[in-house]
Amino acid sequence: MSAAPPSPPRRPGTPQAPAAPQVKAVNCPNCGAAIALRTFGKAETVACDSCHSILDAQDPTLKILQKFQAVVGEAAPLIPLGRRGKLRGEDYEVIGFQRRSTEVEGIRYLWHEYVLFNPYKGFRYLTEYHGHWNDVTLCKMLPTLVPSSPPKATYLGETYKHFQTCTASTDYVVGEFPWQVRVGEKVEATDLVSPPRVLSSETTGNEVTWSIGEYLYGSEIWKAFNLPGNPPPAEGVFENQPSPVKEPVGGIWAVFALCVLALIALLVGYTLFGASNQQVFVGNYSTNSSPVPSPAPNEASFVTDLFELGGRTSNVEVETTANVDNSWIYVNYALINQDTGQAWDFGREVSYYHGRDSDGSWSEGGRQDSVVVPSVPAGHYYLRVEPEVDPKHPQVQYTVRVKRDVPVLGIYLLAFLALLVPAIALSFRGLSFEARRWAESDHPIVTVGSGSSEDD
């Protein structure tokens, strides 16, 4: 048994500093191996790593309580016993380790639990399952159970939803424990989740112990205990793992709805008060009587009368309406500024077909088309018009109408899509993550088409 070094003399009137924690060294009564006791008599049991004996830490002779057979190749703790680190701003030392398991539908699931100790703060626990970690402490008050389906509980104002209930068995232990640990001991374990927290109960007979855990990433554990290398990667989605989508799906669509309402308000305001939607020119034409004589009427090219685009630089809409019937007309346009010679060239087609077949009546196309030319400066303009028509229907009457500063809905449609696509993507990602989370629970989210679904 090691002795603590003498303390330096204390000056009169100065407060007494708390004694530095000391490790007590004892020997296993079964195999004689050295055992370090770090909890200063607060541990109930201690397990010998050499002969796998569980000893009564409260007994001066370390009475043997149980011997167990360790599994060959038992994995060593990821955090070695005796390792010290800073968790939640406090110093803790790893003093115990146990492996636990449960069996569900013939499949055995394993996880690890670590006992941490601070002589002034008491005990704390870490759990690890396939790279997922939780910082666990005992509840300071009893949770309130809420009768529902599935069951729920409230704790410190937060509601937790039942995830699973199983029989947990202790398979392997080493180090110190603040309870009478036994290999082979079984308890009924229940987890209720409200990510990133999990509310857990363990029931043995009439005794129920409640604890509260918060999800931690492996990188946080490695940093806290200054461990070498990298933590094992997390596999799958854990029961209280935080979702990568911070907002719930309902919240995402609530924000989307507010943005769409704001977009509609902008559209209405712009349509009523922003855009003048002023008609500046209209002309009626026929392909066999073009204003400009031509030896080929179907390809006649002509120019319209002058019209003025006043005010600020704005868009210009050119609308073409034609009496096509199972035929088409294609018009090559050029919008030309008489003062500067600047021109905007574009072509538009108007076609309309209809008929009847075995599926009934059908139609495609339409008798009207429009195009918007953006950012046209004020000035005097005319259109150069060159129509082309279906040779089977050479006579087409058409109207050309020009408006300035018209409401453009396309940009609002793009803005709507810019809002819709992220909302759909985030919702899909969040729902997919939750489906993977609850797939391992007692209440899996059943996909559409399977006949049932999770009710919450």
Describe the structure.
The protein is mainly beta and 456 residues long. Helices cover 14% and strands 45% of the residues. The chain has an eight-stranded antiparallel beta barrel. Strands 18, 19, 21, 22, 23 and 25 form a six-stranded antiparallel sheet that branches. The chain has a four-stranded antiparallel sheet with strand order 17-26-20-24, with no helix packed on it. Strand 8 (107-118) and strand 9 form a beta hairpin. Helix 2 runs antiparallel to helix 3. The chain is elongated and about 120 Å long.
Which features characterize this protein?
26 strands; six-stranded antiparallel β-sheet; disordered C terminus; 14% helix; mainly beta; eight-stranded antiparallel β-barrel; Jelly Rolls; 45% strand; 456 residues; single chain
Short account of what is shown:
The chain has 456 residues and is mainly beta. The chain has helices spanning 218-224, 249-274, 410-438; strands at residues 24-27, 34-37, 45-47, 53-56, 64-67, 84-87, 90-104, 107-118, 122-129, 132-138, 144-146, 152-155, 158-177, 186-194, 197-204, 207-216, 278-286, 302-303, 307-309, 314-322, 327-337, 343-357, 360-366, 368-376, 379-389, 397-404. The strands form four sheets. An eight-stranded antiparallel barrel has the order 7-8-9-10-16-15-14-13. Strands 18, 19, 21, 22, 23 and 25 form a six-stranded antiparallel sheet that branches. Strands 17-26-20-24 form a four-stranded antiparallel sheet, with no helix packed on it.
